Fold this sequence. Notes:
- The protein is α+β, with helices and mostly antiparallel strands.
- The protein has helices spanning about 15-25, 75-85, 110-115, 115-145, 145-160, 170-175, 180-195; strands spanning about 25-30, 35, 45-60, 65-70, 90-105, 165, 195-200, 205.
- α3 (about 110-115) crosses α4 (about 115-145) and α6 (about 170-175) crosses α7.
- The termini are far apart.
Amino acid sequence: xxxxxxxxxxxxxxxxxxxxxxxxxxxxxxxxxxxxxxxxxxxxxxxxxxxxxxxxxxxxxxxxxxxxxxxxxxxxxxxxxxxxxxxxxxxxxxxxxxxxxxxxxxxxxxxxxxxxxxxxxxxxxxxxxxxxxxxxxxxxxxxxxxxxxxxxxxxxxxxxxxxxxxxxxxxxxxxxxxxxxxxxxxxxxxxxxxxxxxxxxxxxxxxx
Length: 208
């Protein structure tokens, strides 16, 4: 009998939850672990049961940008689509905070779609949510200044961690924003001067 309790973002039947637990492999990861690399073959769909994952896009020159977070109760719709079409990953998924993740093998997906139409509805709802988040990223990159994007990112991280104290490096923030570390450091000092944050080594506290 499976001891893991499955938490999902949208309501589904007990029968579907039981089947997902039956088919899935449960693994735990530490902060910073990479669970999916770009160009890797997609053999399963990750469903986050605890913790969170950040999904990044990396350019050939090494620059990265944060696309969205996958929180507890959510799955990765890009893995779902890529796996169904036998494609390699276009994104990198890295653990934001210690996580328990269920991996649903791709070959089980058609069975669930056939037997549980609500599973497809769950995926569509997540796809809609991810699409809106990607639109926010496009809007921020196109129309917002880097300091505004930085503050939005800090607040999003605080919401995820449920804490105004963040243990994060300037380098990590720069990677997620797709900019240089020196730019982030300068903007953080400006935010500190404005009374928005308090800076310590690898630690940022939001004051508002």
